[in-house]
Every structure is written in structure tokens, then in C-alpha cells.
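Table S2 (text version). Query chain:
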Amino acid sequence: MEDKLHHFFSENDFDFQEPHFGHVERFERKLNHPKKTNKTSWKWLSVAASVVLVIGFWLGSMHQKQQIELADVSPKMEEVQNYFATTIQTSLKTIESNRSLETETIIEEALDALEELEEEYTFFITELNIAENQTKVINAMIKNYQQRLKVLENVLQQIEHIKNPNFLNNEIYI
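Corresponding C-alpha cell output:
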């Protein structure tokens, strides 16, 4: 055991020098007088952040309440919007369930067209909020929904034609 310790100390180069003059005094002084650091008051920062969040949510809710959509015009328009939204969602689910390599390009083109129509619809919402003649904007919004449905119906027909190539004029040839 002694040989291992002696061997360990002889192979490793340890520093056996004494520390510089006054080292102990400086060390004790630092221990007795810890350095004061300026700490940020996290309580005040958290309160300020909370106030900013509350004001942000309040402003956001005020902005959303000012926007009128088609469903806000009348109960009949709400019914119309719900019908179109439900029909579009159902068609989109059907299209997505029929996605394959053959139908991929058709579906992507249709989704791009739908995205353009949705951007147009967003413009109509802003127009509805500022327009004096709301009936024109409401008619344009309904036509927008109808165009979306036409796009989806065309895609469904094309998918059906791809799945059943013998399907012509509502007849199946065997």
C-alpha cells in the first residue's frame, strides 16, 4: 500500500509552494465581508409582466368584439354560415380520406384554391365591419362559400373518376 502511495506521489507533480504573503488575511476578509450584489427584484418584474398580460388580453378581446362575422348579422345568416362550414368540413374530411399518390396533385391544387378563397373571405369580414351597404358584402361572402363548395365537389368528382375509371355519365361499364 505504501509503495502505491509513494509511486503515486512520485509520478505526479504537486505544487508544494506556500501561498503569497497576505493570502490568508485577504481570504478571511472576503469571508467576513461578502460582496454585495445588486439583485433584480423578481417580485416587481413578475407584477409588471402580469399587468402587461392583463392589458394585452383586454385589448385583444376588445378588438375581437368589434369584428362582425356573417353569423353576427342575423340568425338566418348564422344558419347559412353553419351549413356551409359543416358541409366544407365534411367534404374536406372525405377528400383527405381519399388521399393517395394519384390524387395528391388534385387535392393540393384544390387546397391552394381554398386558401385563396379563405383569404378573400377574410377580406370580406373586414369589409363587412366598415361597409355601409352590407348586403353586397353578405352576398359576396355567400358566393365565396358556394365557390369553396364547387371546388370541393369538383375534387370529389375527379377523385371518384380516378378511383373508378369506367365511371362515365353516371354509368358503370363492365
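Notes on Table S2: The chain has a mean pLDDT of 80. Strands lie at 167-168, 171-172.
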